[in-house]
Structure formats: C-alpha cells, structure tokens
C-alpha cells in the first residue's frame, strides 16, 4: 500500500509516461479553505493530441488481446484501487471537498465499474441468425469502437471516469481522459495504479489542464477518436455535440438533471425523510441525481416539513476531512453565489426559509429548506447543485406528475408510496431515465444509469453500459451448398 503523497502526481499521463504540458502550472485548491493542494503542469490541446496518437497506436494490439487477458489486467486495477482506498479517498476529499466517508464510498462505487466490466469483457457475445436463404449463414460479432475520449466533471472524480473507461477498456477500446481541472489528482492517481496493474502503454491516458474548451475541441475534432463520452452540463454537452458533427463521432452524454422527489399521502414518512436527506444532501447537493424539488401531498405537507427540517438541523457542516462531517464545502465561490441567488429569488417570490439560508463564507453554505416553493421560482426549472431543498405542495396524482415532468430534464426521479397500482402508474408516467420508488439512493454498477430529454443519451453501468463502446458487425457467409 502506498502513502497518499505517493499517489499525488503533477503531470499528464500519456503512453506510460508522465508528460509536462505548457510551461506554466496550475493550482489544485482545497475547496474547504482555498489552500493549495498541489501544482500541476498545464496540459493543453497539443498534449491532448499526443495522448490521442498514443491511444490510436495502442488500439490494435489492445483490441486483439483476448477478453480474458484484458479482464485480468482490469481485475488487478480494481484490486489496487481498493487496496489504496484510504489514500485515494483522502486525495478526493482534498481536491473536491467531499466528506471523507462519501469519498470512501466513491472509491468502492468507482472501482465497482472496473470489476463489473472486467467480468462483462468475457461475455460480449455475438449471435448466429438463421440464414435468409438455404445456402447462407449469418453471424453478428461485437467489436470495439476505437479510441474513446472521456470528458468528466469534478463531482465524482473517480466514478465518472471508471463508468466510461471500464466498459471501453473491457470492449477493447483505448482511452484519453480529460478530467475536470478542479479534480485532476484522483484521475492521475488511478493512472499510476493502471500502470502497476499492467495496462500496456497508450491504453489509458489522462491529460490534466485548465483550457477545457481547447482540449475538448481537439478530442471532438480528431479523426482518430471514434467516440466521446461526456458527463457535465447540458450547455457543454450541446457544444460537444456540435463539434462532433463534422466527423460524425458517436457521443454519450450524461447531462444535467432536475430530480423530483414526490411524497404521496400514503407514504411511509420516516422512510421518505431518510431518502430525501440522502438524495438531497449527499456531497452537499452537488450531484446530477440529487433531489432538486420535493413535492409533498397537501395532507402531509406540515408533518413532512416539520420532520424534514428537524433532520436537516442534525446535519454536521465542516471540513470534509473530519470524520463526523456530512456536509462539506461547495466546490468554489461561484457555486456559493449561485446557491445564494436561488434563495434570494425564492424569497422574493414568496418562499419561506425554514432552516439555513446562510452563506458561512466563500466555501460553506448552510443546509437550507425553503417552504411554499412554487413553479415560478428559478430552482423549479434549473439544477440547484447545492444544499437547498425546496418543498412544493400538490393535491392530486395528476398534478404531481405534471409538476414532476414540467422540466426540460429527465435524469433521476423519486417517489414514495405504498400503493402498488400508483407505483406502476407513476413509474410509467415519469419522463425520466431513472425512477427510485421508496429509495433515495439509486446508483449502482449493476443498473443502467442515464437520462432522457435534455439530460442526455446513452447508459452507463450494467450489461447495457458496454454497448456504447462497441460496433456490431454482420457477417454473411454464402454458397454453403
Ligand atoms: P460542471 O457544472 O459539472 O462543472 P461543466 O459542463 O461545466 O459542468 O464541466 C464538465 C466538464 O467539462 C469539466 O471537466 C469541464 O472542465 C469540461 N468543460 C467545460 N467546458 C468545456 C468545453 N467547452 N469543451 C470541453 N469540455 C468542457
């Protein structure tokens, strides 16, 4: 096992080597206090090009390895990440502010994709189809798509990478990862462990740098890259889509959300409170499946709200490195300002602050509940990405469905009821890629994760997740008389 400092790297990882980018460095800061975690050599578009070339050269030999050989290397990578869980979690908390226990959870969750797809690598079965004439035989085989570019956000510094990279590598693709400039350290740490696991040079590359637009453009426009997989905002997803048009590049997009959390009048209220706290406040509300709007039936509104506010009052705010903390800092000052403006807008339009509402400093915002929320408030339409929970009232199932679907987004949704008929009807009516019934935490490597509408396309995890990284080839054999 290594010390966490032995897992701190300050250059990009390309073709099995640590490579400097442009002459200047950039700072990775600790969101809890703005202190310097480390300086990193600033990779740029040219550095991305180097990585693409390396991945392109590595593609043929990697894709020609047996699925079992690829699987063995991936299993070793999984084990090394788990062995170094404590150190990776520490690095993750230092660069993202995530409470240390959540970081440990993310190491398990992120690594689970590597294990899952190491297993799936060996089950990438094709098909034999009955011939359409007596002398023909028809086969379908699955082949890796090629070099994959993965552009990832800061909120899951490990898992958003492994969710893309693990199915890609299992299928036989090679990858160039461009992690968020806020959280490149976790990505570089796992690059080191990938090397130890035995990936050949050029199969897994990480380019760290601040000029996201230039680096993304090189990935999208390169004819050597066959596929882009992106997790981030809808706005950037649209930019990447446009940039991928000339090369007709395949694209998977996991974009913003606006998750409703519906509590029906027959719900188990205590279970709903627990689910709402977990679904809203994990990583201070900074995930794309975090609860954005809590919709509560008018008959139980008072009871739910009282219990919810009490549960929020028990959350412990502070530096994520402290074991007891479950609400850490927000990622940066911009995020604090954004949360503040949501609250000001809501109060102006009649919302009531039931608890919180305080900017502590440029790093921390107190967990907040807003009562009497309405559809005209900004957070009814936009993703909050912070520790603010607005509670809306509804009076019928139809109204709940209408409110829930009244958004351009369609990633995660949640509802609480004990009525079987209602469970089916609401599940079918929700225009979302993911539905949690009586459950506020729904992410797992075994289940397909992804959205509809402006939340993107493609699915990550599960048996479906590898399909984004393969091409289907139809082979027809004729003249078998
Ligand atoms: P978030 O709000 O989660 O930061 P973004 O979409 O802004 O969402 O960022 C997600 C990732 O996309 C980050 O790694 C960011 O640096 C990167 N990014 C931002 N703008 C662009 C762009 N124009 N092209 C490519 N990547 C970008």
TrEMBL record:
A Gene Ontology biological process term: gamma-aminobutyric acid catabolic process
InterPro entries per the UniProt record, alphabetical: Ald_DH/histidinol_DH, Ald_DH_C, Ald_DH_CS_CYS, Ald_DH_CS_GLU, Ald_DH_N, Aldehyde_DH_dom, Aldehyde_DH_Superfamily, Succ_semiAld_DH
Residue ranges of every copy of the Aldehyde dehydrogenase domain listed in the record: 18-475
CDD domains attached to this UniProt entry: ALDH_F5_SSADH_GabD
Alphabetically ordered keywords of this record: Oxidoreductase
PROSITE patterns with a match to the protein in the record: ALDEHYDE_DEHYDR_CYS, ALDEHYDE_DEHYDR_GLU
Keyword hit for Oxidoreductase: yes
GO molecular function terms noted in the UniProt entry: glutarate-semialdehyde dehydrogenase (NADP+) activity; succinate-semialdehyde dehydrogenase (NAD+) activity; succinate-semialdehyde dehydrogenase (NADP+) activity
Active site (record annotation): 254
One matching Pfam family: Aldedh
EC assignment: 1.2.1.16, 1.2.1.20, 1.2.1.79
Family: Belongs to the aldehyde dehydrogenase family.
Name this protein carries in UniProt: Succinate-semialdehyde dehydrogenase/glutarate-semialdehyde dehydrogenase
């Amino acid at each position: 096992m290594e010390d966490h400092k032995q897992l701190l790297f300050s250059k990009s990882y390309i073709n099995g080597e640590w490579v400097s980018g442009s002459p200047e460095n950039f700072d990775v800061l600790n969101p809890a206090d703005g202190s310097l975690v480390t300086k990193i050599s600033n990779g740029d578009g040219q550095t991305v090009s180097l990585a693409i070339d390396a991945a392109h050269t590595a593609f043929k030999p990697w894709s020609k390895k047996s699925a079992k050989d690829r699987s063995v290397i991936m299993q070793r990578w999984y084990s090394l990440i788990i062995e170094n869980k404590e150190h990776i979690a520490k690095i993750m908390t230092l660069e993202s502010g995530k409470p240390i226990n959540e970081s440990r959870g993310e190491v398990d969750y992120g690594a689970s994709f590597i294990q899952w797809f190491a297993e799936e690598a060996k089950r990438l079965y094709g098909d034999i189809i009955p011939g359409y004439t007596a002398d023909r035989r028809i086969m379908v085989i699955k082949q890796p798509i090629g070099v994959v570019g993965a552009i990832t956000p800061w909120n899951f510094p490990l898992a958003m990478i492994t969710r893309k990279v693990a199915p890609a590598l299992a299928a036989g693709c090679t990858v160039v990862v461009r992690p968020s400039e806020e959280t490149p350290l976790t990505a570089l740490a796992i690059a080191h462990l990938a090397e130890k696991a035995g990936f050949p040079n050029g199969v897994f590359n990480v380019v760290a740098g601040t000029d996201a637009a230039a680096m993304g453009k090189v990935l999208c426009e390169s004819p050597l890259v066959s596929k882009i997989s992106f997790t981030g905002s809808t706005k950037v997803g649209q930019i990447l889509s446009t940039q991928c048009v000339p090369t007709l590049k395949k694209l998977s997009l996991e974009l913003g959300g606006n998750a409703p959390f519906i509590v029906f009048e027959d719900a188990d209220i205590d279970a709903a409170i627990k689910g709402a706290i977990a679904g809203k406040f994990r990583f201070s509300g900074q995930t794309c499946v975090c609860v954005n709007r809590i919709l509560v039936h008018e008959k139980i509104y008072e009871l739910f709200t009282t219990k919810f506010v009490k549960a929020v009052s028990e959350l412990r705010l502070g530096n994520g490195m402290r074991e007891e903390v479950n609400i850490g800092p927000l990622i940066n000052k911009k995020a604090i300002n954004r949360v503040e403006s949501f609250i000001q807008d809501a109060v102006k339009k009649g919302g009531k602050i039931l608890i919180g509402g305080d900017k502590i400093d440029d790093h921390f915002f107190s967990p907040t509940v807003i009562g009497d929320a309405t559809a005209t408030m900004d957070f009814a339409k936009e993703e909050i990405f912070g520790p603010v929970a607005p509670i809306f009232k509804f009076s019928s199932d139809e109204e709940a469905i209408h409110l829930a679907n009244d958004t351009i987004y369609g990633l995660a949704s949640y509802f609480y009821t004990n009525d079987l008929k209602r469970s089916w009807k609401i599940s079918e009516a929700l225009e979302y890629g993911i539905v949690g019934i009586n459950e506020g935490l729904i992410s797992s490597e075994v289940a397909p994760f992804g959205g509809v509408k402006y939340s993107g396309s493609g699915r990550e995890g599960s048996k479906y997740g590898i399909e984004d990284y393969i091409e289907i080839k139809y082979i027809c054999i004729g003249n078998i008389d």
